[in-house]
Amino acid sequence: MEPIEITGQGLSPLTAVALGQRRTPVVLGSAARQRMAAAATAVAEIAKVRPVYGRTTGVGANRDVLTTDPEHGARLLASHSTTGTTPYPKDVVRLGLLIRVNQLAAGGSGLTPEVADAIIALLNDDELPDLHRGGAIGTGDLGPLAELGLALGDVIDGTSALPLLSSNAITLAECCLAHVEAATLINVVPLVGALSHVALHGNGEVYDARVHDARPQPGQVRVARRMRALLEGLPLAPARVQDPFGLRAFAQVLGPAVDHVDALGNALTVDINAAAENPLVATDTVLHNGNWHAMPIALALDALRLSLHSIATLSTSRLANLVDPEFTGLSRFLASGAEASSGVMMIEYVAHDALASARSSAQPATLGTATLSRGAEHHASFAPQAAALTAQLLDALRDVLSCELVTAVRAIRLAGLSPDELAPAAVGPWLADALAALPEALTDRSLRDDLQIARGLLTQWGDRQIEHPAEASGPAE
């Protein structure tokens, strides 16, 4: 493959994740190389006439201690490489290194182009260093980036250690992965919801454009448009004048998550292309600042998790309707066979177990507090913790949606509906896909395998919509 130029601008979370996953070779762009070289020359001259944090001073509470020790940088990397014992996954490390190079390419760090070249060599040769969790609280990924500095060897000299650490690149990598996963999963929620709508003979009035034009919340409008595209022409008479909340408030609950995943993507796009360095090297000076603070990212993650939790709670609401004969006209728990069969009774328990996990993961990480380094640092965003919680919640949400998908398809199968009978509604082919994948047997048995198949279907459907966006016309359009 031809290498992709890293320029310090125009990198999106989706593109960054794709470059990392495909292990696409990269190269530092010529304009970026010039910016880095100019900044490195400038900061060397500036440091001769005024203190520069981390270069001619200590760090943290040692910011007022001047030093000319040529080993200062080496000692800084050695001490700051103190981390926990859990390694980051290699995909996070690869993406984190890519993001750090892109940030350096934006200029402003004072690091030489050779530092970027050395990181790029690790990427292109797939010789990724072992980086570990621990010590990052949203004010710079100090520990893992110090480990990176040690892995780079002699290219990092006594004055370039601190500038390398002035970044949340590893956290941003986890955030980009979570953002892509959230966007993909949100895009398949309408497919699961549409199948529940079919099973429950829902009332399509809830998605009428006039309803959502009357309250034009952007995400809500997009979800309603997606549901109309899936259900338009559905030849099933609605069972009720007014549906339960799981159906009636579908767009109003999924819509905010659509908006919040967009907001996270926008915040990430800024930070992965930013020269968020401390100090920032300008043309003729250095500017000490707080751009290492990841509060915009942490808040966006917290808001997204709260909205994802609401998706999970509404899914369990539809699940409760699906096992209730008053809403489906079918047997209790969609049972089949001998009297007093349990059917999908246990699926509700599995779903609420996953929902409990989602609820725990939804707690805002930004409520944390920290006072560190003899009071020099009084605040933290806890963005790394927010990123980890988001990954946990997404996994739990996938479990909840898998429970709903298995149950909705079982109800449709038990009712004797075929995909052809749903024509011309676009939900038909998705039902055919699910019917082909999920086992036909309706007698009492373990449904563990069914849930695993459903998880796989959610992944396949998400990937299909990324590859064929016109087919989706959904929340991530």
From TrEMBL:
Any one GO MF annotation of this record: lyase activity
Protein name: Aromatic amino acid lyase
Keywords: Lyase
Cited Pfam families: Lyase_aromatic (PF00221)
Species assigned in the record: Kribbella deserti
